[in-house]
Amino acid sequence: MRPKASNLMIGSTMLAVIAAAFVGLLGFQKIRAFRQQTPLRIVFEGSASGLHKGGSVNFDGVQIGQIMSLRLDSPRKIVAMVMVDNSAPIRKDTVVGLEAQGLTGISAISLVGGAPAAPPVPLDEDGIPVLTADLSETESIRDSLHNVDRLLVGNQAALKTTMQNFETYTASLASKGEAIDSIIGKADGAFASFEGAMTKIDNAVPGLAGGNADDLLETVKSIRQLAESFNKRSGALMEEGRRSLMDISESANKVTRKFDGQAGGGDNPRPPRKPNPTRQ
């Protein structure tokens, strides 16, 4: 029985030594990490929803510590005690706020900025550095979101009517696509004629140098005729383009009046169209 008892004692002693070494290592790492951090007190004037013990403390988006405790100091004041890394460049002008983490509603303490030349964080009565959170921007964003939500809920019918009218006017503009394509095609034809005239001019220059005055005279007459034809086509083309752009502008004005809430004011009369000039 003695050998068995001796082996049991040796085994138990070895397990106890291993467990003690493991606990000691964990304790040493915890003490070392604690020494590399410093306490910081953060005061929230107002709501600090989403914060919890053990939550993150981030500096410019990088985690530098965690929340150790939260307590209610007064009905409108919440005090958070956090531990942050000693290497974090927290200064007196560092801005404290809240930042959401995901869609779970959990918030983290956010520390942003701080000039290197700024003084250090002021100390509280007990010697712990203290910063006061600025939640004015967060509350302003929250109030704006609530206002937008109320506006959307209260104006669902008006928004639906506006979107339907916008779709109608968009379809009306799309129906003008063929007219716009026709105008572009006519413009291409007019420029092609002008390009042909320029080609004739290029061909006439060598004739001028060679003394062919008759050929040059005929070329000049032809160029003049082309220029007159181009002028007439351009006038008709610009008139058609003006009417199409006027139709598009009228539709766009209707859409603008709808979005400005002035749909009941009536449409402005459109100037009369000029008769189409005779094309040659």
> What is the average per-residue confidence, as pLDDT, rounded to a whole number?
73
Q: In the residues, how many domains can be counted? A: 2
Task: Give the helix tally.
Answer: 5
Largest sheet properties? 7 strands, mixed
Q: Compute the number of strand runs.
A: 7
Give the DSSP E fraction (strand runs of 2 or more residues).
15-25%
Element-level helix/strand string: HEEEEEEEHHHH
- Shape, principal axes of CA atoms: elongated
Strand order of the largest sheet: 5-6-2-3-4-1-7
N- and C-termini, Cα separation: 128 Å
Uncertain runs: 262-280
SS content category:
alpha/beta
Helix content: 55-70%
Write down the Rg: 41 Å
InterPro entries: Mce/MlaD (IPR003399)
Protein name: Phospholipid/cholesterol/gamma-HCH transport system substrate-binding protein
Region (Disordered): 242-280
Domain Mce/MlaD: 41-113
